[in-house]
Amino acid sequence: MSEPEVDIIDQVVSQEYKYGFVTDIEMDTAPKGLNEDIVRFISAKKNEPEWMLEYRLKAFRYWLKMEEPNWQNFNYPKINYQDIIYYAAPKQKIALDSLDQVDPELLKTFEKLGISLLEQKRLTGVAVDAVFDSVSIATTFKEQLKEKGVIFCAISEAVHKHPDLVKKYLSSVVPYTDNYFAALNSAVFSDGSFVYIPKGVRCPMELSTYFRINAENTGQFERTLIIADEGSYVSYLEGCTAPMRDENQLHAAVVELIALEKAEIKYSTVQNWYPGDKEGKGGIYNFVTKRGICEGAYAKISWTQVETGSAITWKYPSCILKGDYSTGEFFSVAVTNNAQVADTGTKMIHIGKHTKSRIVSKGISAGKSHNSYRGLVKVNKKAEHARNYTQCDSMLIGDRSGAHTFPYIEVNNNTATLEHEASTSKIGEDQIFYCSQRGIGLEEAISLIVNGFCKEVLNQLPMEFAVEAQKLLAVSLEGSVG
Amino acid sequence: MLKIENLKASIEGKSILNGINLDIKPGEVHAIMGPNGAGKSTLSAVLAGRNDYEVTEGVVDFLGKDLLDMSPEDRAREGLFLAFQYPIEIPGVSTTNFLKTAINEKRKYLGLEPMEATDFLKFMRSKMEEMEMDKSLTSRSLNEGFSGGEKKRNEVFQMAMLEPKLAILDETDSGLDIDALRLVSAGVNKLRNPDRSFLVITHYQRLLDYIVPDFVHVLYKGRIVKSGDASLAKELEVKGYDWIKQEVEAAV
């Protein structure tokens, strides 16, 4: 690389993380550390029925016997699980029936994050569940959704109000035995969202959960369960932020999606946890298990993720294509800057006949970050005429970042059709100069080029969020080229 | 419009421009010709602000401002446009989106509000008609998969949209067949007006059959060694560059 190019690439400097503030609010927290008492404590806080506590304890005992995985393409300092607070909630005892009862500090916090919970300022067409540390603060548009029979509430509420659904589906896609972090989550999960769309109902608005970690030394372990009954449709979006803190914070969520016959679930994530500072101090460990099952024929699950935050992002939103003619999709943009790491991708498990999957992954690495795509396409013996298309593109900004691709393919049926395309490109000085000669400055140019690179994925996002995601990409890469 | 005085520039210690003097007035079309390696493309790159080159001496005044002191984007925003010899591909970015960004960045620089989307589209549509551009070109990714002719026409279309005061055409004729050359030249001629100047850099005279210059300069070894009117280009077409080289060598 020529000298001037290095110059340009060293020049752009990160804008401060915009969401790094802390809300000063009185908290109700569990003592640090993890043991059976803590699990019981959390369960008691939620006033849970016995079966839920039993489930947690089973998961906890299983977790104790497990070892942390070590096959990933990065290192991180050993997590001291006894040094984490597993439950933190704003002190507020009453059940929240109206927003008037919500602490104004909390409303202000979400306001600052651009998520208005107040009636008049809400994004039209989007219902929001706001989760602050370990609890759900408010869910908007509940009444309107109820008319259609749609259930959208905190999972802790669903445990009480819809125990049959929770019992039937919780842990059915991601069992607690699945992996280390899923077991941990099953033992200590505090809150998250629950969605049920009845037969034949097209959910009338976007559903969205906004997660906010606030308290110090806490982990966030949310649990999301979405069930789309036969012939229904739902589009769901999650967003998240956290304050800037010097220590790493663990976020180990589990998301389970169940799409019954002819149902469709579109799940979008705009992940913007605190990424740590430029040297890699602090930031969130985003170790998440997300999996959906196309249970019935012609079901469809589509994951779209825009991952810009977190010190480490480690997750593989996956689809089990059990129903014949079912479809799984994965669209991903993962941006890493400075010292960030991402090891992300998907698993497409073809079980049913004529199942289709599509993977489009765009990785952008800047600074000295590392970005890995890891994906598995598995075609089972009985999955006649399965099809997969995988496209995996990496873009490097500067010459100190890394892009890695680990595709795994297991085909046990010779009627399968698989295509895989991969590319690596670099934002060149030529592209930047071309833009600047048209009057487009450096930051704008990078944002334009990166957005162009990610276009296919961004197009998958619901309209309301596509613009936000574009801005986010620009902000995360500020400072990446110099 | 543009006044270049004793401009010297080098790359990696190797001197390429060795004292260029040039005065371009509003509405004038100047052609720079010269053999390969004379410094033609370096001149356009230095004027546009490409930072691979180091300017070692000289002054360039552009509309009363010190051009060399400005960033490449500010030069563009002040009204300098370079039609690239090899236009760059930007996958996933449509010409429409690219131009909207460019125009609004310029407006921001000039202290103006960004153009409304509908106004922009109207403006673009009128320019497309004027330049006889194919509609599909603006929605495709910028320069990606464009033929040589399409790329150059797109450059001229961008020029029409950005309405520069000074347009530099860097070997715009290279890689074009005669039909494409005609189309591109017709586009440029439409954009000629009394307030807009052109600096046409070319190796061959044939472009100047279509874009007839007011002045022709011959660049050799980083200096303008001969200037004349359009007839000088014809003379070069017939006689080649050797006689000029000999003249220069004899003078030394």
Account of the 3D structure:
The complex is a heterodimer of chains A (482) and B (252). Chain A is an alpha/beta fold. Chain A has helices spanning 3-9, 36-45, 50-64, 104-112, 142-147, 155-161, 163-169, 180-188, 429-437, 442-453, 455-458, 463-477, and strands at residues 27-29, 88-90, 126-132, 135-139, 151-154, 193-197, 206-212, 223-228, 233-241, 248-251, 254-259, 264-271, 283-294, 300-307, 312-315, 318-321, 327-336, 341-350, 356-365, 370-379, 387-396, 402-411, 417-426. Helices cover 23% and strands 34% of the residues of chain A. In chain A, strands 5, 6, 8, 10, 11, 13, 15, 16, 18, 20 and 22 form an eleven-stranded mixed β-sheet that branches. Chain B is an alpha/beta fold and 252 residues long. Chain B has helices spanning 40-48, 72-77, 95-109, 117-130, 135-139, 148-162, 178-191, 206-210, 230-239, 242-251, and strands at 2-11, 14-24, 29-33, 54-62, 65-66, 80-83, 90-94, 141-142, 166-170, 197-202, 215-220, 223-228. The longest helix of chain B is centred in the middle third of the chain and has 15 residues, at 95-109. Chains A and B meet through helix 1, helix 9 and helix 10 of A and helix 2, strand 7 and helix 3 of B.
How are the strands of the biggest sheet of chain B laid out side by side?
A: 6-9-10-3-11-12
- The radius of gyration over CA of chain B amounts to 18 Å
* Class by SSE composition of chain B: alpha/beta
Structure class of chain A: alpha/beta
Identify low-pLDDT runs of chain A: 1-15
**Proportion in helices of chain A:** 10-25%
Overall 3D form of chain A:
globular
Q: Could you tell me the mean pLDDT of chain B?
A: 92
Quick one: biggest sheet of chain B? 6 strands, mixed
Oligomer: heterodimer
Beta-strand percent range of chain A: 25-35%
Number of strands of chain B: 12
- Mean pLDDT of chain A comes to 83
Instruction: Please tally the β strands of chain A and state the result.
Output: 23
Q: What is the N-to-C order of secondary-structure elements of chain B (H for helix, E for strand)?
A: EEEHEEHEEHHHEHEHEHEEHH
| C-alpha end-to-end distance of chain A | 14 Å
